[in-house]
């Protein structure tokens, strides 16, 4: 019996393939790059949301829906609003519509006429004229506005299935206590002038805005947000750029409705008088108004 031998070439044996590992310094560099990116991203996010930059917004309310092709209406509601996200601080100062001031390009007149005169001259200029009037008389740098049609109050309240208000004292025919107002009742509440003056009306307007804000922050109302967005797109005009909305919204959320510093130019800050034309107006007492402006807008 013969044996056959097979010679195997050692070089032909299968050897395990070794995967080359990247140098450790490249791996470390990648980790550092990712960490640096995340750090810069978080820093920019913190600066965006929390930078101590003040944003002043003039909230204007038109008491009737403008006729087609024109928005020549007096602004019966004027609320000078300031937001400082870092604190957070949200201040709202209501300005009486009969306050007698200098309207640039017009002369001495009620503060609420600035929008009307400008819109008569050039459509779309009314809100800018109102801001210019506030800057000229109050010395507050305001570059943004929000213009709201009062009729939208009814639609907003109806979309929320009513707005709940809490009254410490009887007001507008309602006893003290908690009340849920539907759209029609909400509009009547903010418009009511019977038996009260403009100072009470300003307080009611701020109370309603706070109640509305509290309700919109309630998770039970979030299902209505899509419809509310459509209503606001149709009835709210603003020049606040979209990139600012998250920042301002975050500040409002942090402050909450109960954290808003709500003030009005009160009776003690004005001097009623009658113009040569027989109009009943209010002369501002700047010695009393300016300290409040410094507290709210000069911090």
Write the layout of secondary structure elements.
Blueprint: H1 24-50, E1 55-62, E2 75-84, E3 89-94, E4 100-103, E5 107-110, H2 114-121, H3 126-138, E6 144-149, H4 151-159, E7 163-167, E8 177-181, H5 183-191, H6 198-216, H7 225-235, E9 236-238, H8 245-255, E10 261-264, E11 270-274, E12 280-284, H9 286-297
Parallel strand pairs: 1-6, 3-10
Antiparallel strand pairs: 1-2, 2-3, 4-5, 6-9, 7-8, 11-12
Put the structure in a nutshell.
The protein has helices at residues 24-50, 114-121, 126-138, 151-159, 183-191, 198-216, 225-235, 245-255, 286-297; strands spanning 55-62, 75-84, 89-94, 100-103, 107-110, 144-149, 163-167, 177-181, 236-238, 261-264, 270-274, 280-284. With 299 residues, the protein is of the alpha+beta class. It has a single domain (57-297), classed as 3-Layer(aba) Sandwich (Aminopeptidase), CATH 3.40.630.190.
The CATH architecture classification is 3-Layer(aba) Sandwich
- Approximately how much helix is present in the residues? 25-40%
Radius of gyration: 30 Å
Helix count from the secondary structure assignment: 9
Major sheet: order of its strands?
A: 9-6-1-2-3-10
The fraction of residues assigned to DSSP E strands is 15-25%
Structural class of the secondary elements? alpha+beta
The beta-strand count equals: 12
Looking at CATH, which topology would you report? Aminopeptidase
Main beta sheet: strand number and arrangement?
6 strands, mixed
What is the domain total for the residues?
Answer: 1
- In the predicted model, the low-confidence regions spanning at least 5 consecutive residues are none
């Amino acid at each position: 019996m013969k044996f056959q031998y097979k010679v195997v070439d050692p070089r032909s044996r299968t050897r395990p393939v070794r995967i080359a590992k990247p140098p450790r310094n490249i791996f470390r560099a990648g980790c550092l790059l990712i960490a640096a990116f995340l750090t810069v991203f978080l820093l920019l996010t913190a600066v965006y949301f929390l930078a101590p930059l003040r944003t002043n917004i003039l909230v204007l309310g038109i008491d009737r829906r403008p006729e087609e092709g024109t928005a020549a209406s007096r602004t019966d509601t004027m609320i000078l609003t300031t937001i400082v996200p870092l604190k957070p601080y949200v201040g709202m100062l209501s300005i009486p519509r009969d306050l007698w001031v200098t309207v640039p390009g017009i002369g001495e007149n009620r503060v609420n006429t600035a929008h009307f005169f400008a819109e008569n001259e050039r459509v779309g200029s009314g809100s800018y004229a109102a801001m210019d009037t506030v800057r000229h008389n109050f010395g507050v740098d305001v570059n943004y506005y929000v213009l709201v049609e009062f009729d939208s109050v009814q639609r907003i309240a109806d979309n929320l299935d009513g707005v709940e208000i809490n009254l410490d004292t009887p007001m507008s025919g309602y006893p003290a206590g908690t009340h849920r107002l539907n759209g029609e009742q909400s509009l009547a509440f903010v418009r009511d002038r019977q038996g009260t003056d403009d100072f009470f009306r300003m307080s009611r307007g701020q109370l309603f805005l706070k109640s509305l804000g509290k309700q919109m922050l309630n998770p039970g109302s979030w299902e209505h947000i899509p419809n509310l967005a459509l209503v606001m797109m149709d009835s709210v005009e603003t020049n606040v750029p979209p990139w600012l909305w998250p920042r301002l919204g975050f500040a409002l959320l942090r402050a909450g409705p109960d954290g808003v510093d709500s003030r009005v130019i009160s009776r003690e800050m004005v001097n009623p008088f009658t113009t040569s034309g027989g109009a009943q107006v209010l002369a501002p007492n700047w010695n009393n108004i300016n300290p409040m402006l410094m507290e709210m807008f000069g911090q």
